[in-house]
Write a structure and sequence with these properties.
The protein is an alpha+beta fold. It has a domain at about 80-200: Roll (Thiol Ester Dehydrase, Chain A). The protein contains 4 helices and 7 strands, in the order H-H-E-H-E-E-H-E-E-E-E. The protein has a 7-stranded antiparallel β-sheet, covered by helices on one side. Strand 2 (about 95-100) and strand 3 (about 100-110) form a beta hairpin. It is globular. The protein starts with a helix and ends with a strand.
């Protein structure tokens, strides 16, 4: 009797309880009734690429559009100079006139050439000086050798402003077998604004 009672008690303890029953109801949209509005559609989350693209577009500063662009307006006798190279084409166009003293290069400056103070950037003027002396040494040497600038000194005497027509006046001092020397003056309406001097060496 005692063993039987213990067995029944263990069986009762080990028997799992019946799972409680629950009723499941399907939630239907309110559109089932007359005059009811349809349930809103779930909002789709943007993909990671879309989210990153939107964030980058918000952070990207607007492109600065130049207020004016230099045209080909120039004093009489100036024409486009073909062998100016990609960089000068970007900041130019550089024009040229042939006279008794050699080539005179010209450049019409505009807003896109200015610094934050509204005057023409010194780097542009230095580039123009270097370019003019290089072409003058090239024409003076007439030996077909490539040369490169090894020293460039530039003095900024007066500022230039958008709308100015800048001309170069170059003098070649000496062309040697290794080194060449030249100086250059940039003028606006006959007024000197920049003075430069450079030493060039035979490349290679």
């Amino acid at each position: 009797m005692i063993g039987t009672s213990v067995t029944k008690g263990l069986n009762a303890t080990l028997t799992p309880a019946a799972a409680p029953s629950c009723s499941v109801e399907r939630i239907t949209s309110a559109s089932s009734g007359p005059g009811a509005r349809p349930a809103p559609r779930p909002r789709e989350s943007p993909s990671r690429n879309e989210s990153m693209g939107a964030a980058l577009s918000r952070r990207r500063p607007p492109e600065r559009i130049p207020r004016s662009f230099p045209g080909m307006d120039a004093p009489e006798g100036f024409a486009p100079y073909d062998a100016q190279g990609p960089f000068l084409e970007l900041i130019g166009p550089v024009l040229v006139r042939e006279d008794g003293d050699g080539r005179v290069f010209g450049l019409r400056v505009s807003d896109r050439h200015t610094n934050h103070r509204g005057t023409v950037q010194g780097g542009l003027l230095s580039t123009f000086v270097d370019f003019a002396m290089g072409r003058a040494i090239e024409a003076e040497s007439d030996d077909g050798k490539d040369r490169a600038t090894v020293s460039l000194t530039v003095d900024f005497l007066k500022p230039a402003v958008p709308g100015d027509w800048i001309e170069s006046r170059t003098r070649v001092e000496r062309v040697g077998g290794t080194l060449s020397f030249a100086d250059c003056s940039l003028t606006v309406d006959g007024r000197e604004i920049v003075r430069g001097r450079a030493v060039w060496v035979v490349a290679g």
